[in-house]
Specification:
The protein is 2% helix and 47% strand. With 256 residues, it is mostly beta strands. The protein starts with a strand and ends with a helix.
Length: 256
C-alpha cells in the first residue's frame, strides 16, 4: 500500500529460511531508496491483503496458518496495532480495495474451499466488520482488485470476467471481461480515473503484459509490457501519477 507519498511492502515468502517473512519496508520515490521499518507483528505469512485508509495502513489474513487477524500500521510512529479480526472465514489470496473511508476484503481460499465469494466492509472509526452482498461472479482466489472513485472492481483469477462494486446500493454489475484469458496472481492498482492490471500466471505461462481499464468507456487497453521479467505473485502500488511493481517469482524460481 502507499501512504502520503511513500510505498510499503512486507511479509511474503521466499526460498530461504524462514520461508514466511515478516519484515516490512518503506519506499521513498523522491530519493529512490528503501528503509526497513518495524517488522509486521502478526508473524510471517504470504497471500495477505494490504491497503491504506487515510494516514494508516492495514494488513491481514494470509497463510501458512489460515489467518483472519487484522492489523493497523502507523507510519508516523512506525508501529503495528492489532484490530478486530476479519469478519469472514480465515483465508489467503483474497482481494481488497478502499472506497472512501472504508476497506473491503473478500474472495480467496480457505481450509474449506478455494472459491470463496463473500465480501466484507471494514470501518476503521468503529473497528468493525459488516458483511456485504457476495461477489457477483463465481468464487475464486488470486483475483485482481482496485477502486476508482466511489466504485470497486474485481475479477480474473481462474476466469476472465470482471465486476464493478457500488457500495451505495451494495451490488455488483458485470463489466467488460479482461481482454486476455483469466490469470492468477497479477498486480493491480489504480492511478487517477483508470485501473491497471498485469503480470501473473496463466496455466504455466508467466506473464509480463500490462493493461489499462477505463471505467467510463468500460474498455481494456494494452499498455507497455513490464520492463522486468515475467512474474507471478508480485506486488504493486501507486504514488501520485506513477505505479510501482516489484518482487514476485518467475519461471526460474518456479522450476527450481
Amino acid at each position: 500500500f502507499s501512504i502520503e507519498g511513500k510505498g510499503y511492502i512486507g511479509t511474503g515468502t521466499d526460498q530461504n529460511a524462514p520461508f514466511h517473512q515478516k519484515d516490512f519496508w518503506e519506499y521513498n520515490p523522491d530519493t529512490d531508496t528503501w528503509k526497513q521499518k518495524a517488522d509486521f507483528e502478526g508473524g510471517g505469512r504470504y497471500g495477505a491483503i494490504g491497503f491504506s485508509i487515510e494516514s494508516k495502513g492495514y494488513l491481514g489474513t494470509g497463510y501458512p496458518t489460515w489467518s483472519k487477524d487484522f492489523w493497523q500500521y502507523d507510519p508516523v510512529i512506525d508501529s503495528w496495532t492489532q484490530k478486530e479480526d476479519f469478519g469472514g472465514e480465515a483465508r489467503y489470496s483474497a482481494v481488497g480495495f478502499v472506497i472512501g473511508s472504508y476497506g473491503f476484503i473478500g474472495l480467496g481460499a480457505s481450509s474449506s474451499t478455494y472459491a470463496l465469494k463473500d465480501f466484507w466492509q471494514y470501518n476503521p472509526s468503529t473497528d468493525t466488520w459488516i458483511q456485504k452482498v457476495d461477489f457477483g461472479g463465481k468464487g475464486r482466489e488470486d483475483a485482481l482488485a482496485f477502486s476508482i472513485g466511489n466504485k470497486g472492481y474485481s475479477g480474473t483469477g481462474y476466469d476472465s470476467d470482471f465486476w464493478e462494486y457500488d457500495p451505495s446500493p451494495d451490488n455488483w454489475n458485470q463489466k467488460a471481461s479482461f481482454a486476455q484469458r483469466g490469470r492468477e496472481g497479477g498486480v493491480s492498482f489504480s492511478i487517477g480515473t483508470k485501473g491497471y492490471f498485469g503480470t501473473g500466471l496463466n496455466s504455466s505461462n508467466f506473464k509480463k503484459d500490462f493493461w489499462e481499464y477505463d471505467p467510463i468507456n468500460d474498455l481494456w487497453s494494452q499498455k507497455a509490457d513490464l520492463y522486468g521479467p515475467a512474474r507471478y505473485c508480485a506486488v504493486g502500488f501507486s504514488i501520485g501519477t506513477k505505479g510501482y511493481i516489484g518482487t514476485g517469482y518467475g519461471v526460474e524460481d518456479y522450476l527450481s
